[in-house]
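Annual report, structural modelling task.

Input specification for the magnesium ion complex:
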Amino acid sequence: MMNPRERIEKEEAERLSQFAAKATESQGRVSETAPDPIRTCFMRDRDRILHSKSFRRLKHKTQVFIDPAGDHFRTRLTHTLEVAQIARTISRALRLNEDLTEAIALGHDVGHTPFGHAGEFALDEAIKELASPTGPQGFSHSEQSLRIVEILENLNLTHEVRAGIGGHSKGRKDLSDVDGEAVSTLEAAVVRISDRIAYLNHDLDDAIRANILSDVPLPFRHFGTTHSERIGNMVNNAVENSMDRPSISFSSPMLKDLNLLKEFLFENVYDRYPDKYRDISKAQGVVKELFFHYCQPHHLPDGFDGIQGAVDYVAGMTDRFATSEFVRLRVPEAWNTPR
Ligand code: MG
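The model returned the following structure:
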């Protein structure tokens, strides 16, 4: 008799598109383990990521707005969940592997530093200032995401999930290469496109919440009148243009408009945020100071070593842990007269 996993694998073979990654065709793990009786390899990877400590730390990491006092601003965790939700919808519509999609989505941002991109730039700069001939030469959050799942948490994930996590970030580059660039699986391409749908929409929404923008600018009103309608239209466009094709893409008018929205957000939100939030340089100072502190001998906790250890330790911190470590290390405690 078939166990539940074998039944799911059989259903995948019958139900999924010819372009989907099937669990039975996975290239496998670095260290082979006995298959689970209930879950396919991709379902298992999703669970491994969800149960990891790095995943839980996302709740206190910045998305765009640093350690926001307002409860409704996105954090790295809520961003990740929004990406996973959008990506699963697209995957299911295209009959791709929803479990693989979800695993990549949940792991795609675990390598982010405290304080968002400001923290990432600071850490990269600090590593370059140190210019160690044998240590790391810079910092990239997508490479760090891979280091976390492969080495630091040693999750022993499948090749497909690791490839999807390692190749997701494009920064400010043109969004058109989301489908032009070689992707490991269509599920990885779905996560990439969903990451963009999620952040363009929630950053617009959060920028209005933060009074950086007063409303959705006129040229972007045609995306929809509400947050939900805007996401829905973008998702529909991606699904319509990718159905039964070996690539994931938007229509060219949609892609053009999304690129305009992205440029608009860079100019009016991300690049202007430091003028509104003066403490951003303090946050960067905290990251650098912590990194240089932990580069010194015997400062790192057990399990971390050398300059790479300092990078791993500082990059793994949440905003609030970085701040409290900085206070503990650099701000004197009040003198209490011993009794
Ligand atoms: Mg992301």
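DSSP finds 16 helices and no strands in the chain.
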